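In the previous chapter we treated chains in isolation. Here, by contrast, the input contains two separate entities that must be folded as one system, with a combined length of 817 residues.
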Amino acid sequence: MREKSQVDSIDRSVYDIRDAERDNWRITAGLTPDIINQISDEKNDPDWMREFRLQCLEIYHRLRVPDWGPSIDGLDMDNIVTYVRRDKRMSNTWEDVPEDIKDTFERLGIPQAERKSLAGVGAQYDSELVYHNVKAEVAAQGVIYSDLESALRGEYADMIRAHFMKLVPPTDHKFAALHGAVWSGGSFVYVPKGVEVSIPLQSYFRLNAKGAGQFEHTLIIVDEGASLHFIEGCSAPKYNVANLHAGCVELFVEKNATLRYSTIENWSKNMYNLNTKRAVIGENARMEWVSGSFGSHVSYLYPMTILKGDRAQMEFTGITFAGREQNLDTGAKVVHLGSDTSSYIGTKSISKDGGVSTFRSSVVVDQKARRAKAAVSCQSLMLDDISRSDTIPAMDIRAGDADIGHEAQIGRISDEAVFYLMSRGISEEDARAMIVSGFADNVSKELPLEYAVEMNNLIRLEMKGSIG
Amino acid sequence: MSELLVNTLPALTWHRLGMNQSRLTLLDPNGGVWLDADVPEALTSADRAAVPALESGMGEAFSAALKEAPLFVISAPADTQCGRAAVLRYTCQEATAQRSRLYIRAEENAEFSVIVVLKGERDARGQFALGMTLDAQKGSRISLYFANLLPDGMDMAADLAGNCAENAEIVLTRLDLGSKQQHMGAAIDLAGADSRFTAELAYHARSGQALDMNYVVRHRGKRTESLITVSGVLEEAARKCFRGTIDFLNGCAGSKGTETEQVLLMGEDLVNQTIPLILCAEEDVEGNHGASIGQLDEKVLFYMASRGIGEERAKAIMARSRIELALNAFPDERVRGEIEAFLAAMEEV
């Protein structure tokens, strides 16, 4: 069995494992009130959630597909199955997870990571979580890490109702409305006041079912003075029909709190990744995003941060690697509302083998935001002349004492650098891979070691065969 | 009167930002503008010519609306080297609603300059819409200097479409000081190998003024170069949207494009929108963009104060420095005097 933790054995087949769809329950493809009611029945939703889902469906049908990003013509919603689950329900012990699912996650390194370096793990397979666990010492600190459905009916039901899709309202865009209608799975995290979670929590999302969608919802509340690092990973095997991921992440970072949210996205190249992530940051609080986008056929991904409290801070570090058959439209958004807020967006993008990479951002400084500071830096690397790389950064400044900087560069790998490495006995392919890994250093140095290794392996995989 | 969508970004982004394009209400033409043209003998002028249909910054709808507008043509025969600039003064009178076209053509290896000044009588009201086409043929160089000195009552829409053949160059210097509302666009096609576009754009927007700009450079030929420098001042209650695009098309190997913008914010209730695009479908290129948006550095104010210069005066000096480079580039003393007089009148207000 090949495992991804060995650097020299990485290949795409680890991610392309397809499990036979045994014992699966699939809802009929398409989007109708009847289908939404069936999902609601399946999930035993409270009444307000059922009504909310149906409202979202109406909004979904009313809103138009965006006309400014990559084409999603290949995504036929009438053929997407919005809910797939195994007959067996979620477990808190690894042994109870169905054997084939367990094998898949073991190959992806999830249980090993949990043992070595994580405070808790949630593993979602298709529409439902199959495993969720949090270390006893972390739970003892009062940290809640559970699947969202359980939380919706438990002690934290009111808290969830007060926060669910308040930051990303279904009217935000068509796929936010879709998410509201059919969401399933995902995690709820609450870190109580003053609690510092010293090792990360992780959720891993695996979409195995052909022609299906995954719509998990992640809701994290980091209370006053608390801190958390949350890691999100995702992958899927490749099929010859479209799959869809339209997840939603809502993050509430209260006064003096800190949250780091890291993602290594490695969906298969038949995936439409139309994901929405948003954070609101309180006074003196800090939000850090670390984002690596490697997979998907089409991606629309722009984590947004609202710096609401005075002296709130945000830092976004991202990398996007677009290869053959990929059109990845990624970036970040920030809104400065509080005074003395600051933000930094630093991204790198790489285009190769006909891949299209677009960096898209917006920095908005509200009239009331005094002394806001923002800086945006994006660098793009073109590895051949059949690919494409676009940079579309917008700045809307409405306060006279704002201080805003922006820089962007686009270019190619320097021949001198490749020549230098080759003169030291390194092959041209390895030299180019090494330079690209160095270019991606901004993200890898921000990730825990295991994830940085995974990211560098993905780059090496993408660079294979880049010569000749 | 017609409603047009103009200054559309070559690649759209989120509509809610309101930067993808802008709306322009174009008044039905009724005249009211006098053209005073001082054209050196080495150049030829005419009111008829077949104007090439080129992509413009403001877009097809604006070009179509001006299709039948009166035309003025300046052209330079091959190998003409004209030291004195042609000066065109468009003077707007009361109740103006004018549409005009200007076609500037340089044949092979010709080099010359054209200055366009838009002015108006103090009580002039209305709108002036000007469409300019620049055709720089092989080895030629056209330098266009453009100053908007229109009074507050006049709105302006000035569009530009340009084409550079092999080794040709277009140099654009713009100084936008007047008009309550200004729409400006330029699209330059660097079609020929080794062609170049250089733009020095400066503006000073005061209370209630609104500027809407769209500059696009298409790098098509090999080893083409573009440099766009924007420097501006936004005072209390002014609005500005700057769209700037460097587009490296497949095949333009060896090309370089740079765009920089500096905005000095002076006051409140202002809106600064900036969206600099780099579009790239070619590996062997270098594209750069840099923007700096902010108020006056306190260290500068402190330094000035230590030299006996008060805050108001210091701000005026620094605001002036933002447009000084463009102003000094105008190759005609009389025109520079007119600009100085306009600035002095603005400062009095």
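Helices of chain B lie at 60-65, 298-306, 311-329, 333-348. The interface with chain A takes residues 11-15, 17, 19-20, 248, 250, 253, 265-295 of chain B (CB under 8 Å). Compare these points with the single-chain example from earlier in the chapter.
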